[in-house]
Amino acid sequence: MPSRWARGRTLEKVADLQEEDLDLFSARVPSSGDEHVLKVRDLTRLVRGVLEGNFPSVVVEGEVSNFKRHMPSGHLYFTLKDEEAQVRCVMWRSDASKVRFEVSDGIKVIVKGRVSLYEPRGDFQLYAVTLMPAGQGALQLAFEQLKKKLEDEGLFAEDRKREIPVFPSRIGVVTSLEGAAVRDIISIINRRFPAVEVVIYPVKVQGEGASDEIARAIRDFNKLSNVDVLIVGRGGGSLEDLWAFNEEVVARSIFESVIPVISAVGHQVDFTIADFVADVRAATPSAAAELVVPDGQEVTAGIQSAVRNLGRLVEQKIYGLTLELDKLSHHYALQQPSALVEQKSQLVDELIRRLDTEAQHSMDVTSQKLKAIESHLNALNPSAVLRRGYAFVESSAGIVSSVRDIQAGESATIHLHDGTLESQITGKSERLAEHE
Amino acid sequence: MSKAAKQKEDLSFEGSLKRLEEIVETLETGNAPLEESIKLYEEGMTLAKSCMTRLNEAKLKLKKIQKNAGGALEETDIEN
After folding, report:
1. Residue that terminates a domain, selected from A276, A294, A312
2. For burial by CB atoms within 10 Å, which of A148, A182, A263, A405 has the most?
3. Whether residue A113 sits in one domain with residue A14
């Protein structure tokens, strides 16, 4: 135990102290006769010297109480205690800034520091240099603490997650230019769906200042507002290496981002605070690249199927039209035969002209179908046929195309090219040797 | 006319694909008149062709953001 070590050392030192002490006293306070009458400040200074000389570095475990962070100085003041004793502790801001977890009353810590005396009050104090949570790692505790805090604030809420666009055209990447992550991202996007722009914002991804750089890059992308989605991440590493992605400043910048964010930190097993805040967590940078763009081959297949469908549907439409024209020419063309047929014919001409301009192979096929319709239309043009001396007969049941369609005694209308004749059937005979 | 305008303003890959899908769906209903159908067909083929071209001929563009001398953010091309 570190504290025991400190105690052992103290005892040993105190034994040494006796003679030195006497020398010290006689040297420092010579003028007051045989009795050493000290001023208070002399005493405190002497004791301080004794303490500092003997406890330059101790490691003590205890529970934090009366914790206070003094503002604006940033120094920490607290009491370290166990069941039987307590000691005042101070931690200067320069040291306190390196403490990564939130210190609060009740938590067990291991303090490393030096012992001294605060002369104005005569209190002996422990000047903490490092502070570690007892039991678990500082980073682990910091992670848990920040996770809980941000979760309580709603930064991880599912209902605020933004949608990742299916077809981004510009992809922002916040990562280091060195390292495998950026190379993996580029090569996978290039393979899957190269019809995009990848905009890399190079940042430090570990070490001092990394979290600030990452957060600034995310904010800058939002200011520029010219990418559709962001990938924020780095390749694998130790918990320490990945730490920047567990910093609050990064979490906040992701939360505030208007641009959807995909986090891509480390390996499959690594979860960072950034992962919880991001709109989508990718297990690795490579996974982020797979996620951010669609599969080009699937997209191609989709387009090809759409093209096939287009061709099929238009052919169906044309087939439908053929049937419709057929019907029209039988039933209504007679009202205004030439006008109606010409109109349809003109439409077909127009369509053919437009289709011919299209240089698609499938369009040629379509054109041929339309040409076929055109000739069909010409063949059906009743006006041309009637002009040659032919007539057709219509009964109340419709067009009479067979002697069986009408009975003797029924009335019928005979259509000629320039008008109609009303008639009554007086008799009929059927030809026997039927040819088609 | 509004369609052409819509097509013009929506030139993104995603927009093109969406429109292509829409066209196929419209034709699928069979309700569009012939002339409209042919127009849709033409539009769809043009969209499909442009998407395929974009997909097949695209080369990934790589850029880097950095601060210029004036401290402003600047995008520069980098080699793939």
Report:
1. A294
2. A263
3. yes
CATH, residue A166 = 3.40.50.2300
Asked whether the beta carbons of residue A186 and residue B62 sit closer than 8 angstroms, the reply is yes
Question: Quick check: A306 and B34 CB within 8 A?
Answer: no
How many structural domains compose chain A? 4
- Residue closest to A85 by CA, chosen among A68, A62, A52: A62
What ipTM was reported for this prediction?
A: 0.79
Name which of A314, A351, A363 to mutate to probe chain B: the one with the most chain B Cβ atoms within 10 A of its Cβ: A314
A343 touches chain B (CB under 8 A): no
Alpha carbons B11 and A430: distance in angstroms, whole number: 67
CA distance B8 to chain A (A): 17
Q: Residues A123, A161: one domain?
A: no
Q: Report which residue type is found at A12.
A: E
User: Which residues of chain B lie closer than 8 angstroms to A202, CB-CB?
Assistant: 64-66
pTM for this one?
Answer: 0.59
> Is position A402 within any domain?
yes
Q: How far is B62 from chain A (nearest CA, A)?
A: 5
Q: Which residue is it, tokens 């669609």?
A: A294
Q: How far is CA B50 from CA A75, A232, B53, in A?
A: 64, 32, 5
Q: Give the distance from CA A311 to its chain's centroid.
A: 37
The answer to whether the CB of A210 falls within 8 A of the CB of A234 is no
Tens-place pLDDT, residues A385-435:
677 677 878 888 877 888 888 888 989 988 887 888 999 999 888 877 545
The DSSP H or E segment spanning A29 is none
Residue A429 lies in a domain: no
R_g over Cα of chain B: 19
In a domain, A383, yes or no: no
Sign of CA dihedral A234, A235, A241, A247: positive
Q: Do residues A121 and A261 both lie within one domain?
A: no
Q: Are A146 and A279 in a shared domain? A: yes
Any chain B CB within 8 A of the CB of A169?
A: yes
Distance CA A218, CA A214 (A): 6
CATH number at residue A131: 2.40.50.140
Together in a domain, A284 and A173: yes
Of B13, B45, B62, the CB nearest to A307: B45
Cβ neighbours of A317 in B, within 8 Å: 27, 30, 32, 34, 37
Distance from CA of A198 to the nearest CA of B (A): 5
Same domain for A79 and A121, yes or no, is yes
In a domain, A227, yes or no: yes
Q: Which residues of B touch A347 (CB under 8 A)?
A: 34-35
Task: Report the pLDDT value the prediction gives residue A17, as an integer from 0 to 100.
Answer: 47
Decide if A167 and B59 are in contact by the 8 Å CB cutoff: no
Which tens digit of pLDDT belongs to each residue from A121-177? 999 999 999 998 887 777 888 888 899 999 999 999 999 999 999 889 899 999 999
